[in-house]
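Attaching the record inline, Q. Sequence:
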Amino acid sequence: MDKMPLHRKIFACAVLLSVFAVNVHSQIRSYVGIVRGQFSPEFIRKMESCREKIRGAGYISYAKAVDSYLEGGFGSGFVYAADDGTTYVLTNRHVIMEADTASIEFENSDGTSELYEGLTVAAANEDIDIVLLAFPLNGGGEERF
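Structure, as predicted:
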């Protein structure tokens, strides 16, 4: 059986302890949102260029796969507020793979929705497929959530 390197064990334990600490010591948000990765315009241009080269070589189904990839995936995100008031989203790393930023959308009880964009990666671990996203700051230096 493979042993996980010490630094990965420490990171995994830190994430788990943070989640437990948040559950005990801070306000838990009572909802879950849908997280989507947001690709940079440069990344999109590069992928579109690759798609055209693939299509030009006759690989139409692979070109369509690039289109599907650029449409993006989604996954659930769990929101919580730390003791210092910082708001985070915990989700899977594969949900935002290759994205520069992320968004999260919540559905309200009245059927409307709220979208928050520009979340950035605060911490990530690909081995355990987890990422911690931070809400962006507004112009006044406070979080926008």
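Confidence is low (pLDDT under 50) at residues 24-30. Helices lie at 6-25, 41-56, 60-71.

More tomorrow.
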